[in-house]
TrEMBL record:
Belongs to the universal ribosomal protein uS17 family. Keywords: Ribonucleoprotein, Ribosomal protein, RNA-binding, rRNA-binding. Part of the 30S ribosomal subunit. One of its GO terms (biological process) is translation. One of the primary rRNA binding proteins, it binds specifically to the 5'-end of 16S ribosomal RNA. The gene is rpsQ. InterPro entries: NA-bd_OB-fold (IPR012340), Ribosomal_uS17 (IPR000266), Ribosomal_uS17_bact/chlr (IPR019984). CDD domains: Ribosomal_uS17 (cd00364). One of its GO terms (molecular function) is structural constituent of ribosome. This is Small ribosomal subunit protein uS17. Pfam families: Ribosomal_S17. GO terms for cellular component: cytosolic small ribosomal subunit. Gene3D superfamilies: Nucleic acid-binding proteins (2.40.50.140).
Length: 78
């Protein structure tokens, strides 16, 4: 099964080897058909602590690393 890849913005880098990434999704409201934005935060593993708040990053699903961390940062966008 392929691993999911999501893109988002780093909102926190205070933890050691962990960044919190906000991923935003857009969809049409079922009744009103207006575009709605919803976001969710994921904790992702950052081995070298190189990503900082405000960076656009891609995260990939992985095996659980801790209680609530099962994503890994794979790259940063410009």
């Amino acid at each position: 099964m392929p691993k999911r890849i999501l893109q988002g913005v780093v909102v926190s880098d205070k933890n050691d080897k962990t960044v919190v990434v906000r991923v935003e999704r857009r969809f049409a409201h079922p009744l009103l058909q207006k575009t709605v934005r919803r976001s969710k935060k994921y904790k992702a593993h950052d081995e070298t602590n190189q990503y900082k708040t405000g960076d656009m990053v891609s995260i990939q699903e992985c095996a659980p690393i801790s209680k609530d961390k099962c994503w890994t940062v794979i790259s940063a966008q410009a």
